[in-house]
Amino acid sequence: MSEGIPKTVVTFAALDCIPCPFKRQCTTAKKNRRQLSLQPREMTEALRQARDQQQTKDWNTDYALRAGVEGTIRQATAVTGLHHARYRGLAKTHLEHVYSATALNLIRLDAWWNGHPLDRTRTTHLARLELNLAA
Fold first, then answer.
1. What radius of gyration do the chain's Cα atoms show?
2. Which residues are in the Transposase DDE domain (predicted)?
């Protein structure tokens, strides 16, 4: 049982796997014995159904809205450091969140008024270093 989810673990002897034509597709274990973890049937079917649903156009349209939310969350954590509260207590933490939201709105208004698009791509640390050295 892992993380409160029951599963069945199947172990094969190394000699059982040697002649098997599906050995490469089965598992990538490097040990002498091979092992598979099988989730309960209901969980496997639910996962398969969710993956099938993700291939539909309606799901992709709905998920595109989520991308905007994810971008806002990323910007909030990158710009204002919202992952960790600076203060203790609900009132002070709430005030910090309000100030952070206000700062994000001002940053977005400034970018819109001045015609500067918000940074939509993530720059790696190495690329950022190269940009700083070139300037």
1. 25
2. 9-109
Domain enclosing residue 63, as ranges = 48-119
Report which residue type is found at 21: P
Whether residue 110 sits in one domain with residue 68: yes
Backbone angles phi, psi at 97, to 5 degrees: -65, -40
| Residue 30 is assigned to a structural domain of this protein | yes
**Residue pLDDT, tens place only, 8-19:** 888 877 777 778
pTM above 0.70, yes or no: no
**Rounded (10°) CA dihedral 113, 116, 119, 124:** -140
Is 55 a domain residue?
yes
Tokens 């002498």 -> residue: 32
Q: Within 10 Å of residue 34's Cβ, how many Cβ atoms?
A: 19
86: helix, strand or coil: coil
Helix then strand then coil, % of the chain, to nearest 5: 60, 10, 35
Domain identity same for 54 and 29? no
